[in-house]
Amino acid sequence: MEPNSQRPKVRPPAAAGLFYASDPDRLRASVAELIGAVEASAGVASKALIAPHAGYVYSGSVAAEAFARLRVGAHAIKRVVLIGPAHFVPVRGIAAPTVDAFATPLGRIPVDRQALAAIADLVVEADAPHAPEHSLEVELPFLQALLPSFALVPLVIGDASAQEVAEVLRRLWGGPETAIVVSSDLSHYHDYDTARRLDAATAAAIERGEWQGLGPREACGFLAVAGLIVETNRRGLAPRRLALRNSGDTAGGRERVVGYGAWTVEEMAAH
């Protein structure tokens, strides 16, 4: 047998067949349908997005509202910084994988090792938190469908601060070649009306740049969202809401729902 070092290390999909279709043709068709249902936006490219990460039947339409904003400028994007919460394996800080690529049924995406080297002092290297994690994976087919070619900077957040996340984003912000995707759902398992009230308050706080009040009750990816807001505040930018719904609006009952929101951050072109 050839030694492992000769082969690229690949993180295989963990959520295929659970959160989205495992068959490539079905997956491609479902993503195309979700994106196709979103009206074309005016000509400003998104720099950063906040998108949910539940099963596509629940949150896919909301996620599509965010990802459709990458249609403008898709050919310029060569790197995607994708950050989300670690749901399953505890992490001290922010975890970067050691693998060379992430795989979905739509193919492999190379990991940008150079970008990870630039933030090596801010992250820990650990594959265990990435292996079962869906918060990053479910965003990948949208990116694969929309972007002709890109490398991935996949980061899961455990016990970190919003400022630490913001520093990672500051270093990797880049220009039109870099897009940032923050993965988070909103409130969990309240009744429909309570969820609507909580999520509306969370959305308003995000749009006002008030990150300090965000916690696990408001969003599972609150640290990723807060880190993005710290950095957008510093840059004089603000997230703009695209959609705010919950599973009671999409595919579930209304007794215990999960909230989903989509936001875009746009930079005005330099003059």
CATH first level = Alpha Beta
How does the major sheet shape up? 9 strands, mixed
CATH superfamily: LigB-like
* Proportion of residues in helical segments: 25-40%
Helix count, DSSP H or I runs of 4 or more residues: 9
How many strands in all?
Answer: 12
From the alpha carbons, calculate the radius of gyration and give it in angstroms: 17 Å
- CATH fold name, please? Protocatechuate 4,5-dioxygenase, Chain B
Q: Structural class given helices, strands, pairing?
A: alpha/beta
Number of domains: 1
What can be said about this structure in brief?
The chain contains 9 helices and 12 strands. It has one domain (45-266): LigB-like (Protocatechuate 4,5-dioxygenase, Chain B), CATH 3.40.830.
What does this structure look like?
With 271 residues, the protein is α/β, with parallel strands linked by helices. The chain has nine helices and twelve strands. It has one domain: LigB-like (Protocatechuate 4,5-dioxygenase, Chain B, 3-Layer(aba) Sandwich), CATH 3.40.830. Strands 2, 3, 4, 7, 8, 9, 10, 11 and 12 form a nine-stranded mixed sheet that branches. A three-stranded mixed sheet has the order 1-5-6. A hairpin with a 2-residue loop joins strand 5 and strand 6. Helix 6 crosses helix 8. It is globular, with a radius of gyration of 17 Å. The model has no long low-confidence stretch (mean pLDDT 95).
List keywords for this structure.
single chain; 271 residues; alpha/beta; Protocatechuate 4,5-dioxygenase, Chain B; 9-stranded mixed β-sheet; 3-stranded mixed β-sheet; 12 strands; globular
